[in-house]
Please model this.
Amino acid sequence: MGEIIPLKKIPERSAAILFSYPKLDPEEVLKRVEEARELGVEAIELRGRHLIKGLPVLGKGHTGVVLAVKTKNGAAALKIRRVDADRSSFRREAEMLRIANEASVGPRLIGASDNLILMELVEGQYLTEWLSNPGFDPGVVKRILRRLLDMARRLDLIGLDHGELSRAHRHILIAGEKPVILDFESSSIHRRASNITSLIQYLFINEGNRHLLEGWLKLPDRHLLLKRLKDYKSTLSEEDYKALLTFCDIVQGAQEWEIKA
Ligand SMILES: Nc1ncnc2c1ncn2[C@@H]1O[C@H](COP(=O)(O)OP(=O)(O)O)[C@@H](O)[C@H]1O
Ligand SMILES: [Mg+2]
Model:
């Protein structure tokens, strides 16, 4: 467990930088602390595998700093907009996450403001770390990959393009046996959704990931895979999706297809 700092103490503590990163602006901190209070945040907890100025946090990206927090309803994750982010508000990202949630994708959205997104806290490992775990049964790996691909498939069907699944390194966490797709900052409902295409490229074309997967399943030929991806992309049909999963050795055939996650 990490150090817990009540929200009202933040402005006077070194953790204030987390609310106005990378440049500390005391007024901005006060404003954001107030936004957090309105969303129901009571305290932050300094923990996580990433460090900002020596303080442990859950994550750091180009637009946000993500902290573990306590709310009146329990633990949650708080994404705080960086003051140097190229977005002026988180409202749009929160709306994308809300739409993803309708397809049971992404951490559950709890609330949002201009500078904050409060969401379900995901305790897990990045997919690549998880895949490096030597002790699994191949069936477990295939089941998790199937669940992950089904999520991308559901996003394709509702027309929400995640936008960063071809470089999903820090955007997929595995919590227990549940994959969670993070960060809808680059998402859009106005372009053609290519989540399956991006994710399969990330998993099965990317050299490093191919290497991680080869112990668990029979890798598909890259050239043929690209052709099947093209077919899927033009139809988005269930049939082409099934063909892709079978080709990637994630399901064995029609019978197994019906066993849903
Ligand atoms: N709900 C969450 N639960 C746990 N960790 C999270 C959560 N959301 C984000 N993170 C962590 O924070 C990192 C950065 O979040 P992300 O949304 O990608 O920010 P950015 O838009 O700045 O890239 C992620 O890679 C992940 O490690
Ligand atoms: Mg990110």
